[in-house]
Amino acid sequence: MLTIAQETYDAIVAHAKRDHPDEACGVVAGPEGSDRADRFIPMVNAAGSPTFYEFDSAELLALYKDMDARDEEPVVVYHSHTATEAYPSRTDIGLASEPNAHYVLVSTREHGNSEGPVEFRSYRIIDGVVTEEEVTITPTGTPDQRESTP
User: Fold this and answer.
1) Which of 81, 101, 133, 145 is spaced 20 to 30 Å from 37 by Cα?
2) Predicted model pTM
């Protein structure tokens, strides 16, 4: 089960809507081994594509160095789908290299960057096996939640 704060959920959804019609991507980091999604980090989709996302390699390297210095790991790896459901594509499954991460997909296909709900789903992807999991959203303002941008 993925547990995230309302403000982190809202930030992921806002990023997905803002980048629509291109896919958005990012990470929510947390203390190593904790499964606590604390620090929202929106990233640039280097592919600039409505059908594919790719982290910028220099930005990703800097992020991993920063997480290492903070004793953090990627708790959530998220991206959006702009024209399809929030389910991992074959490419998404192939790129899933963090066995402890929750892979969140947000579909903006119905409303794009306009007001309206999105489809928000979370998965564990281990050795190519996709397992959907429940998402629990906690109230905003819990003391352990921090937000940052690069």
Assistant:
1) 81
2) 0.91
